[in-house]
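Table 4 source record.
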Amino acid sequence: MNVIRVFTITLICLLIGTMMSWQYKSIDNNNRLVSSQTTSILTLQEELIEQQRINEELEERLKEINKEINDYAYAKDDMEKIDKTIKKEMREAQILAGLVDVKGKGVEIVIDSIYGFKFYEYDLLNIINQLRSWEAQAISVNGERITALTEFELVEGNRCKINGNYYTMPYVIKAILPSENIDYLVFMLEDMFELITRYYDIDIQVKEEILIPKIKSEGALLKYVY
């Protein structure tokens, strides 16, 4: 009877020990799993924070690049505007200096003597000044480009010296000017010529396209400039 009790108690103790061992192992495994999960979560959080930092840096760099692109685009536009302005001003300066051929709408005035009367240089100057007052952008006399440096001089033989070259009548005066000024100019010229038509044959025509050549010799006008 005592042997059976001892065996029974021993068996019960073994069962309890086994159960306790399993329980401890289960708790340890759970702790390890929780620890592993906790470590994984922390790692993921750190990776997420790092990725957010990288994204913020990339976004900031993208803003800087976009700003640089915009600055370049604005600078390019400004340079193109400056380049166009410079070219426009250079073209206008060349026209005023008579360094380029020009075409445009304007008037042609032909003056010839009827009885051999002289047409003095100041008469030509009066016409030139009248053309300039109506904003003539280019003027020529017998193919000689008239500029700010041009001088007229009447010499022997009823010849007129223009830009160092000599010309006689008839004088063919051409001028390119704004279309809206042409009719008024023609009226003023006809009124101005009314008193001298008995001495000169004067013809005024409006031309849709007039070619005025550049000055024939820059040296004749610019020989004292250096």
